[in-house]
Predict the 3D structure of the following.
Amino acid sequence: MRGKTVIVTGANSGIGKATAAAIVKLQGRVIMACRNQARAEEAARDIRQETGADGGQVVVKQLDLASLESVRSFCEDIIKEEPRLDVLINNAGVYQCPYTRTEDGFEMQFGVNHLGHFLLTNLLLDLLKRSAPSRIVVVSSKLYKHGDINFEDLNSEQFYDKAFAYSRSKLANLLFTWELACRLEGSGVTVNALTPGIVRTNLGRHVHIPVLAKPLFNLLSWGLFKSPEDGAQTSVYLASCPDVDGVQGKCFADCKPLDLLDKAMDQEVASKLWDISEVMVGITT
């Protein structure tokens, strides 16, 4: 990855931090795009210490995916400051939070996991195309299987179930990947998705576990869940490996192609979701 610049969203902890560290070890330059500046700076110090990287190789930039204004501001800075962008890794996510809304009034999980990344990717596409061959990596989840896209209630105003809302946002990630792949054909930019599996991260902070069950849960999680480093392997593979040169619109798990349910590749739904997402984030084409 020497000479390549990679943006990783949500790089201050968990899979994102492990992904950033692995790319730096491959001699890539990482821009850590994070909501919490202080935590991101701390994570960047850890990565520099672990890898021996210098300040220019690990850069922290503020990005709040729950704010379209923040996304636009971040992209303006990147376009102004960066001559090239080789890889964009859409990693950040919110998991099963109580019903809350983003700054722009969207249900939080759909707003951050799908719409924030949708706008981010679209605003950086020209730079990615100018840097071709370049790659976009989208972190989804196998929980997409439990979601569906209800165009009558994308904002969960009629009904909200935090687990279902997460699954819907992860299905939206896959439909976005599918539609974007069609649009990028022949551009030199590839987009692929992945499901990392169950990983020990702070993503589950909104999940309630009874106090008495916590010691057992923690013990089991160490035995059964992947470490962040293991969880990051497929993200790093899709960002760096020559094996996936030119591979377009696929989903991977454990660095191997994954067969998806038909609903994750429904061209009609993907196209409609794209059009509605453009309206929601204010992209005019």
Remarks:
- The chain has a mean pLDDT of 92.
- Residues 108-130 form the longest helix (23 residues).
- The chain has nine helices and eight strands.
